[in-house]
């Protein structure tokens, strides 16, 4: 029987020796799924395969250190750096690419709440897709519910943000991805997001500008139509530094 086009292919015994990344990539391509830096690919990784991917990235990272002419054999500080960096990418800073979304309990809006709700600032930790330099900032989310809006726990907004931001991102796409996700989960009348972040690719390297930040917003539904509501949301966000 042919596998469903959207599901990972069953393991093939003839795959022995094929790098883990190649197997995962083939499944993504067979399912015609995008695998950009800021896409989540957890659906295509089977149990135990992330450890094999970690071994592969460690090996390749060691090659990078060798090519940078760093004596990892004798330099006690860099002896395990390849493994550390691989672990940091796959299981910490870019974890949002490789793991399933956080479980979010949704409750019906029993009291038919329809007042503006704002959560923030949520700390944002990400990295730019271009240089893999940190992006550190803050995020505010405003929700205008209706009687059909699912209520989700306050902490879940931060968990969803962490999952989306834990990938190589560009800020403009990151806020849209997060807005789409919250929209799908809660189905509000309106959704507003404001993100403010420092991009280390502009501070640590490049133009070496320490003070500039990028601020962007996404407004959906009633926040687009109702200028007073938008103004109320923006005025309730504490003064940004
Ligand atoms: N629009 C946008 N740009 C970003 C973001 N994060 C980093 N960048 C920018 O992406 C650009 C990458 O551009 P390139 O010109 O290819 O890289 P580069 O030659 O190293 O550029 P410099 O940083 O100017 O040295 C830089 O201008 C970064 O500042 C982001 O979230 N959004």
UniProtKB/TrEMBL annotation:
Classification via InterPro entries:
GTP-CH-I_C/QueF, GTP-CH-I_N, GTP_CycHdrlase_I, GTP_CycHdrlase_I_dom
* One Pfam entry name: GTP_cyclohydroI
- Which BP terms does GO give this entry? one-carbon metabolic process; tetrahydrobiopterin biosynthetic process; tetrahydrofolate biosynthetic process
* Domain of life, source organism: Bacteria
Q: Record's GO cellular component, any one?
A: cytoplasm
Instruction: Identify the EC number(s).
Output: 3.5.4.16
Kindly provide the name given to this protein in its UniProt entry. GTP cyclohydrolase I
Which keywords fit this entry according to its UniProt record?
Hydrolase, One-carbon metabolism
Segments forming domain GTP cyclohydrolase I: 61-237
Question: SUPFAM superfamilies under this entry?
Answer: Tetrahydrobiopterin biosynthesis enzymes-like (SSF55620)
| Gene Ontology molecular function terms on file | GTP binding; GTP cyclohydrolase I activity; zinc ion binding
Any keyword Zinc-finger? Answer: no
UniProt pathway = Cofactor biosynthesis; 7,8-dihydroneopterin triphosphate biosynthesis; 7,8-dihydroneopterin triphosphate from GTP: step 1/1
User: Which reaction does this enzyme catalyse, per its entry?
Assistant: GTP + H2O = 7,8-dihydroneopterin 3'-triphosphate + formate + H(+)
């Amino acid at each position: 029987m042919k596998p469903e086009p959207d599901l990972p292919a069953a393991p093939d015994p003839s795959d022995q020796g094929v790098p883990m990344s190649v197997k995962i990539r083939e499944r993504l391509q067979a399912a015609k799924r995008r695998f950009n830096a800021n896409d989540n690919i957890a659906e295509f990784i089977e149990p135990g395969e992330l450890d094999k991917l970690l071994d592969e990235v460690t090996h390749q990272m060691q090659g990078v250190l060798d090519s940078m002419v760093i004596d990892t054999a004798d330099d006690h500080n860099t002896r395990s750096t390849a493994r550390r960096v691989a672990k940091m990418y796959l299981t910490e800073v870019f974890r949002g690419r490789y793991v399933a979304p956080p479980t979010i309990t949704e409750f019906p809006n029993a009291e038919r709440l329809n007042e503006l709700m704002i959560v923030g600032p949520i700390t944002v930790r990400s990295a730019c897709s271009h240089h893999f330099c940190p992006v550190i900032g803050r995020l505010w989310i405003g929700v205008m519910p209706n009687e059909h809006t699912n209520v989700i726990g306050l902490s879940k907004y931060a968990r969803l943000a962490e999952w989306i931001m834990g990938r190589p991102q560009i800020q403009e796409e990151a806020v849209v991805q997060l807005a789409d996700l919250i929209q799908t989960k809660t189905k509000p009348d309106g959704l507003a997001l404001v993100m403010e972040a420092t991009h280390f690719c502009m501070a640590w390297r490049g133009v070496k500008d320490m003070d500039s930040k990028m601020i962007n917003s996404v407004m959906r539904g009633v926040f687009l139509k109702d200028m007073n509501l938008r103004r109320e949301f923006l005025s309730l966000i504490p003064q940004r530094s």
